[in-house]
Amino acid sequence: MIISQLLASGGIWLSLGGTELLLDPGPGSIVQVTKRKMRAERLDAIIVSHRHLDHSGDVNVMVEAMTQGGLRRHGRLFAPADALGPEPVMFSYLKDSIEGTVTLQEGKSYKVGEVSFTTPVKHIHRVETYGMVFRTPRHTFSYIADTRFFRGIVDHYSGELLIINTVFLEPRLPSPHDYLPVEHLSVPDAAYIIKALKPKVAILTHFGMNVWRAKPWEVAEQMTQAVGIKVIAARDGMRFDFSKLNVPDHENDES
Ligand SMILES: [Zn+2]
Fold first, then answer.
1. CB atoms near residue 170 (< 10 Å)
2. What is the distance in A from the centroid of ligand 1 to the CA of 246?
């Protein structure tokens, strides 16, 4: 999907009561952000769930944007150790333009302004990968980044809102013909996880080609019916307002 750009891969912008975070800035993040007139210089941190290109491709340019071309030392980068190691996602010359890099580790908590987040469990993915549980003074929500399904996943990501990367339409078993191992969640995995975690609202995102062909909004509608929880398919540029979590379900329509 990132090669075709049928869907944008710029990541998720979290605007949380004055704390601004950018999650997984994949290729085109700078284009999407500027197109929507979002102020990258206001970002407090960039958080990378894992080093794969679709989650980190625009880290460098977004660091430049966050620091106004390196003129204003500002903000931090959070990423797993292997994204900061010998082949880092951020060029070394940018290191001094930010306030620091922070290594994400299993079971640890971090704080940015009024927001704290934890990286509760290491995912099963080709590179070191974490999802996050975010806590603001008003809300708790979770992001399940790329992973193969594992039983314990439902022990970690409760919250009022769940954002879940849903790549496959059907579970895919590893095959000798796969050049890369298939370590992603499928639509049935997402349904199982949502049902177990019972958020008020779930957002499916990060669709592979087969989910795209199946029309994500129809997949989400079917899942809403099946699990009895409001499931929304993300769209490019979609905004989700946290105040929607406080209104009764029947009024809880996306916009
Ligand atoms: Zn990945």
1. 12
2. 32
Q: Do the Cβ atoms of 121 and 105 come closer than 8 Å?
A: no
Which helix (H) or strand (E) is 11 found in, with range?
none
pTM of this prediction?
Answer: 0.94
C-alpha closest to that of 6 among 236, 160, 244, 240: 236
The per-residue pLDDT for range 70-124, each reduced to its tens digit, is: 999 999 999 999 999 999 999 999 999 999 999 999 999 999 999 999 999 999 9
Q: Which of 129, 97, 92, 99 is nearest to 113 (CA)?
A: 99
Longest dimension (CA), the chain: 51
Average pLDDT of every residue of the chain: 94
Around ion ligand 1, which residues have CB less than 5 A away? Answer: 52, 146
CA nearest to 149, candidates 193, 179, 118, 181: 193
Residue-wise pLDDT for 177-192, tens only, equals 666 667 999 999 999 9
Phi, psi of 99 (to 5 degrees): -80, -10
Question: Coil, strand or helix: which one is 174?
Answer: coil
User: For 60-73, how does the pLDDT look when each residue is reduced to its tens digit (9 = 90+)?
Assistant: 999 999 999 999 99
Expressed in angstroms and rounded, the spacing between residue 236 Cα and the centre of ligand 1 is: 19
